[in-house]
Amino acid sequence: AWEIVGKQDRWDLLTINPGWILGPSLSKRNDSTSIRIMIEFADGTYKRGVAELWHGIVDVRDAAAAHIKAGYTPEASGRHILVSEEATLLDIGNILRKHFGDDYPFPKTQAPKLMFWLIAPLFGFTRKFASKNAGVKIKFDNSYSKADLKLEYIPLEQTVKAHFQQILDDGLLE
């Protein structure tokens, strides 16, 4: 695509590269990965602990705003990484516990890397993935998306709280 755009001047190209998209949904569907994982946070799937896997996270509302701004900002160009913050699954569990208390068995501990390596296939991960990624902190630079698209990211805590509240409001835990 970049090669093609360089050979013509009728249209521009830019890319939107979102991290893990969380935040309130507009529908009551529960078949998305982000909804499923949030439900698993509440149903006890992770009550014995979670792997130390780092994620770059962006609010769905920020991802939508970025797409709109990309289409209506003629001077926008290039590659835009959409990540508000980096966090582990335990960080998400801690945010959920802070706002929703102990009514749900949110994870309180991080599983040792060896434990994750042993059970990784039960959760859809390869052992190779577990050994190469558990405990490895990642960092994203969102400064270009902030400058080029004038994005102001919603804080992670607000995103996680709104996402889980939507799940409760829509009765998706029942």
From TrEMBL:
Keyword set, alphabetical order: Oxidoreductase
Organism: marine sediment metagenome
Position of the signal peptide: none
A single GO molecular function term of this UniProt record: oxidoreductase activity, acting on the CH-OH group of donors, NAD or NADP as acceptor
Protein name: NAD-dependent epimerase/dehydratase domain-containing protein
PANTHER family: NAD DEPENDENT EPIMERASE/DEHYDRATASE, STEROL-4-ALPHA-CARBOXYLATE 3-DEHYDROGENASE, DECARBOXYLATING
